[in-house]
């Protein structure tokens, strides 16, 4: 129990391959559950890059903030640095659940930092994922094929992981996620 007898909230890590619809799912979950807090990541990516709502900063500022303890978690992937602001602990202490788009490689560390971590592993059929990636226009056919052929690493032992198939209508994926996260309210 945290201050005032509030049951601490959970960090809900949303993971899955690029193009699977993690951001769309997170937006829809927050629309259905206004009490859910979406964590705004800090990323060393240009603000005009699009996609999720994030705080864009320079690599030098990111390094300074990481050294100063500004992040609950931080990592590098695909040539960029990503951070989860430490303020997420305040959200959880108030008893609110928080959604964060995390790297699968960070889940072991996330479980140590955030007791009660719940992982939503978002998937889609390969043909759906290939069509979504092609529609974004960021990668050629060969790159998409290589991305789809890469095996996903195993999840660390002991995690609570719910697989959400986002191949069909988004509403179906939202309902499946809410049923897994809040079974008592379904």
UniProtKB/TrEMBL annotation:
Instruction: Name the HAMAP family for this protein.
Output: PhnN
Q: Where does ATP bind?
A: 16-23
MF-aspect GO terms: ATP binding; ribose 1,5-bisphosphate phosphokinase activity
What does the record list as GO biological process? 5-phosphoribose 1-diphosphate biosynthetic process; organic phosphonate metabolic process
Superkingdom of the organism of origin: Bacteria
User: Could you say which EC number(s) this protein's record lists?
Assistant: 2.7.4.23
Q: Return the GO cellular component terms, semicolon-separated.
A: cytosol
The pathway is: Metabolic intermediate biosynthesis; 5-phospho-alpha-D-ribose 1-diphosphate biosynthesis; 5-phospho-alpha-D-ribose 1-diphosphate from D-ribose 5-phosphate (route II): step 3/3
The catalytic activity, as recorded, is:
alpha-D-ribose 1,5-bisphosphate + ATP = 5-phospho-alpha-D-ribose 1-diphosphate + ADP
Occurrences of domain Guanylate kinase/L-type calcium channel beta subunit (ranges): 8-185
* Protein known as: Ribose 1,5-bisphosphate phosphokinase PhnN
Give the keywords, sorted. Answer: ATP-binding, Nucleotide-binding, Transferase
Q: Which family does it belong to?
A: Belongs to the ribose 1,5-bisphosphokinase family.
Q: What is the lineage of its organism?
A: Bacteria, Pseudomonadati, Pseudomonadota, Alphaproteobacteria, Rhodobacterales
Task performed by this protein: Catalyzes the phosphorylation of ribose 1,5-bisphosphate to 5-phospho-D-ribosyl alpha-1-diphosphate (PRPP).
**Regions annotated as coiled coil:** none
């Amino acid at each position: 129990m945290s201050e005032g007898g509030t049951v601490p909230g959970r960090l809900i890590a949303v993971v899955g391959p690029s193009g699977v619809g993690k951001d769309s799912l997170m937006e829809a979950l927050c629309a259905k559950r206004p009490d859910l807090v979406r964590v705004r990541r800090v990323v060393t990516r240009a603000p005009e890059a699009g996609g999720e709502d994030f705080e864009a900063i320079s690599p030098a500022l990111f390094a300074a903030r990481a050294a100063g303890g500004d992040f609950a978690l931080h990592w590098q992937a695909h040539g960029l640095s990503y951070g989860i602001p430490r303020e997420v602990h305040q959200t959880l202490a108030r008893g609110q659940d928080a959604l964060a788009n995390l790297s699968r490689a960070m889940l072991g560390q996330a479980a140590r930092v955030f007791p009660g971590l719940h992982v939503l592993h978002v998937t889609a059929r390969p043909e759906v994922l290939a069509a979504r990636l092609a529609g974004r226009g960021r990668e050629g056919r060969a790159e998409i094929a290589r991305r789809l052929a890469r095996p996903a690493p195993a999840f660390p032992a002991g995690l609570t992981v719910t697989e959400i198939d986002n191949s069909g209508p988004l509403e179906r994926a939202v309902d499946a996620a809410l049923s897994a996260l809040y079974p008592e309210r379904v």
